[in-house]
Write a structure and sequence with these properties.
The complex is a heterodimer of chains A (262) and B (346). Chain A has 262 residues and is mainly alpha-helical. Chain A has a domain of 166 residues: MetI-like (MetI-like fold, Orthogonal Bundle). Chain A has 13 helices and no strands. With 346 residues, chain B is an alpha/beta fold. In chain B, the strands form 4 sheets. Chain B has a 4-stranded mixed beta sheet. The chains are: A mainly alpha (262), B alpha/beta (346).
Chain lengths: 262, 346
C-alpha cells in the first residue's frame, strides 16, 4: 500500500503537480483568457470530439475483432492476432507519415476518395482516422480474455430457451463484456486525447479547423509562453479526468447491474 | 497480516534496488561511465533543422584545422530541431557550447530568459554574427505547370502553397515576412493591403507543417501543392535529391534571412571550452568554411566566394531596416493575437 502510494506520487502526481504550479503563475483573468480563447476552444472540440468518436468506433470494431479472434478458427489466426498490437509498437510518427501518405491527395486511398469528393488527410476526418488506428488494440485486448472465459454453452442455453441471436447478445454477452469493453473504451479515449506524433502529420494544423490541442501547447511553448501552455495542459487534464471518472462510474454501474442479475 | 504485507514491500524494494545496482554496474562495465579521453574536447552545436549537411562538413574541416593549430582533438556534436525548440532546450539545460539558429529572436530569448549570454551577443562577431545568409525562394514542379513567377502568382485562387507554421518554424517566419515585405513594396507601404495579401497566401495553404523539413517532405515526397516556399539551401538540396522532378523559381524580391551564431557563455564557462568554442565560430568566417557554406547552397559573406558560387542575384530586403527588427516583428505578427492569428479568425 505504502509502496503503491509512493510510486504513484513520484511517477504520476509529481509531474502533474509541476504542471498545475506552472499554470498557477497566471492570474485568474489570464488563466480564463488562455483557457477559453476561441482558438483553444476549437482545438479542444477537435481533440475531445475526435477522440470520443474514435474510441466509440474502436468499441464496436474492437468487440467484433475480439469476438472473431476468440470464437472462430481460421488460417494465420496467430499472425492476425499479433497484428492487433502493432499500433502499440509502431513509433507514432511512422504511423502518422504512413497514414498521411496513403490518404493524401496523391496517395493510394486518397486518390480514390478524392474522385468521390472526400478529403481525409489534413482534415478533422484524418485526425479521427489516426486516432482510430492508435486506439484499436485497447478494446480488443481488454475484451478478448473476458470472451475467452465466457462459456459458449451459455449462448447455446440462451438459444435453447428461445432467445434470438440479438437477444442472446444483448442479454447474455453484452452484460458480461461491458465492464471490460468500457475499460478498453476509456483507455483508447485517453490515449487519443493526448496523441501528438501520429496526428500531427495527417492533421492540416490549420488554426480553428484542424489544429489539435496538444499542438496548441507546442505552439505556446515555441513562443516561450510556458504558463499559457500549462494552462491548456491543465484544462485538458481536468476534462480528461472528468470524462474518465464518468466512464469509471458507468463501469461500476454496469458491474453492479450484472451482479444483480446473476 | 499487515506485517506480512510490509515485508513483501520491503522485499520488492530490495529486489528493485538490486536490479538498479546491477544495471549501473553493467553500464559502467560497458563503458558508459568511462571519462572522455583527456586530449579530446567535445563541443555541442545546437542548430536548426536544415543545417545538418552544412555542419557535418564544417565540423570535419574545423577538427582538422584545430588539430593542426593546437594538436588537440576536437569533436563537434550536432543537435538539430526547430529553432525555437532548440533555444528552449538550451534554456532548460541542454549543454550546448554554441547555438546556430534560424533567427536572432531565438538567441535573444536565450539571453533574456536563460541569462546564458549577454544581451548584445549579436555584436560579438562580424556581420551581425551571421557568417552566412540565405533567402526564401519557390520550388515548383518540373516545367512550372502553373506558371508561377513571383509572389503575386501564389496568392491567386486555385494555387496550393506549402509552407510550415510560422508559430512553430523559424523558416516559416522568414517565408511569411518575405511575402509581407513584397506586399508592402507593391502597395506603397499600405499595411492593410499587405494583410490582405498574406491572408490570401495562407488561404492557399492546405497544411501547415511544424518545421521546414516537414514541409519539404509534404511537397517533395507526398506530392502536395503547386509551390513550396523554402529556404534557398533547402530548395537546392531537394533538387539534388530528386533530380528532374522540380525546379527553383526566384521571385523578383525576397528577404535577407540571417541565421545567427553565438557562444553560450554559461555553458562554455562551466565546461571550460570557451577558447575552442570561440575558435569554432570564428572558423565559420574563414575562406575554407565560406567555401563549404557556398557548397551547401547558403550565401557566404565573403564576396569572392559568393561570386564564385553563382547563386542567382535577387533583390533582398532586411528585417532590421524595413520591418523594425525581430522583437517588434515577433510581437506584431506572430505572438498570440498577432496578425498571423487574425488571418484565421472566423
Amino acid at each position: 500500500m505504502g509502496f503503491t502510494l509512493l510510486y504513484l506520487s513520484v511517477i504520476v502526481l509529481l509531474p502533474l503537480a509541476g504542471l498545475v504550479i506552472k499554470a498557477s503563475d497566471a492570474t485568474w483573468p489570464q488563466f480564463v483568457a488562455a483557457a477559453v480563447a476561441p482558438r483553444a476552444l476549437a482545438a479542444y472540440r477537435l481533440s475531445f470530439g475526435s477522440a470520443l468518436f474514435a474510441a466509440a468506433v474502436n468499441l464496436v470494431a474492437g468487440v467484433l475483432v475480439a469476438w472473431v479472434l476468440v470464437r472462430y478458427r481460421f488460417p494465420f489466426k496467430r499472425v492476425i492476432d499479433g497484428l492487433v498490437d502493432l499500433p502499440f509498437a509502431l513509433p507514432t510518427a511512422v504511423a502518422g507519415i504512413a497514414l498521411a501518405t496513403l490518404y493524401g491527395p496523391k496517395g493510394w486511398i486518397g486518390q480514390v476518395l478524392g474522385v468521390l469528393g472526400i478529403k481525409v488527410a489534413f482534415t478533422a476526418t484524418g485526425v479521427t482516422l489516426a486516432l482510430i488506428f492508435v486506439g484499436l488494440p485497447f478494446v480488443v485486448r481488454t475484451v478478448q480474455p473476458v470472451l475467452q472465459d465466457l462459456d459458449p454453452e451459455l449462448e447455446d442455453a440462451a438459444a435453447s430457451l428461445g432467445a434470438t441471436p440479438i437477444q442472446t447478445f444483448t442479454r447474455v454477452i453484452a452484460p458480461a463484456i461491458m465492464p471490460a469493453a468500457l475499460t478498453g473504451f476509456a483507455l483508447a479515449f485517453a490515449r487519443a486525447v493526448g496523441e501528438y506524433g501520429s496526428v500531427i502529420f495527417i492533421a492540416g494544423n490549420i488554426p480553428m479547423k484542424s489544429e489539435i490541442a496538444p499542438l496548441l501547447i507546442v505552439i505556446k511553448l515555441e513562443q516561450y509562453d510556458y504558463t499559457g501552455a500549462a494552462v491548456v495542459g491543465v484544462v485538458m487534464l481536468s476534462a480528461s479526468f472528468l470524462i474518465l471518472l464518468g466512464i469509471n462510474l458507468l463501469q461500476r454501474w454496469a458491474r453492479i447491474r450484472q451482479g444483480e442479475k446473476s | 497480516m499487515t506485517r506480512f504485507r510490509s515485508e513483501t514491500a520491503a522485499n520488492l524494494l530490495a529486489h528493485a534496488l538490486a536490479i538498479l545496482a546491477f544495471t549501473f554496474i553493467a553500464m559502467i562495465a560497458l563503458g558508459y561511465g568511462r571519462p572522455a579521453h583527456a586530449a579530446t574536447v567535445t563541443l555541442l552545436n545546437a542548430s536548426y533543422d536544415p543545417t545538418r549537411e552544412l555542419y557535418q562538413a564544417v565540423n570535419v574541416a574545423f577538427a582538422k584545422a584545430w588539430k593542426a593549430k593546437t594538436g588537440d582533438d576536437v569533436k563537434v556534436q550536432q543537435s538539430h530541431g526547430g529553432s525555437g525548440s532548440q533555444s528552449r532546450a538550451v534554456i532548460d539545460g541542454l549543454k550546448a557550447d554554441v547555438v546556430t539558429l534560424a533567427l536572432a529572436y531565438d538567441i535573444d530569448a536565450l539571453a533574456e530568459r536563460g541569462k546564458a549570454l549577454p544581451a548584445d551577443w549579436q555584436k560579438r562577431l562580424p556581420n551581425n554574427s551571421t557568417p552566412y545568409t540565405s533567402t526564401i525562394v519557390f520550388l515548383v514542379h518540373k516545367g512550372n505547370p502553373k506558371g508561377i513567377k513571383d509572389w503575386s502568382d501564389i496568392v491567386k485562387p486555385g494555387i496550393s502553397v506549402v509552407t510550415p507554421n510560422p508559430k512553430t518554424s523559424g523558416g516559416a517566419r522568414w517565408n511569411y515576412l518575405a511575402a509581407w515585405g513584397y506586399a508592402l513594396h507593391q502597395n506603397g507601404g499600405n499595411e492593410a493591403k499587405a494583410r490582405e495579401f498574406v491572408a490570401a497566401l495562407y488561404k492557399n495553404a492546405p497544411v501547415l507543417d511544424s518545421g521546414a523539413r516537414g514541409a519539404t517532405n509534404t511537397f517533395a515526397q507526398r506530392g502536395i501543392g503547386d509551390v513550396l516556399l523554402a529556404w534557398e539551401n533547402e530548395a537546392y538540396l531537394t533538387l539534388k535529391e530528386f533530380p528532374g522532378k522540380f525546379e527553383i523559381v526566384t521571385p523578383s524580391e525576397s528577404i535577407l534571412a540571417e541565421p545567427p551564431v553565438a557562444l553560450v557563455d554559461k555553458v562554455v564557462d562551466a565546461k571550460k571550452t570557451r577558447e575552442v568554442a570561440e575558435a569554432y565560430l570564428q572558423f565559420l568566417y574563414t575562406l575554407e568554411a565560406q567555401k563549404i557554406i557556398a557548397d551547401n547552397f547558403y550565401r557566404p559573406r565573403d564576396e569572392a566566394t559568393a561570386a564564385a558560387a553563382k547563386l542567382p542575384a535577387i533583390k533582398l530586403f532586411t528585417i532590421d531596416a524595413e520591418l523594425g527588427g525581430w522583437t517588434k516583428v515577433q510581437k506584431t505578427h506572430f505572438a498570440d493575437g498577432g496578425i498571423f492569428d487574425e488571418i484565421y479568425k472566423p
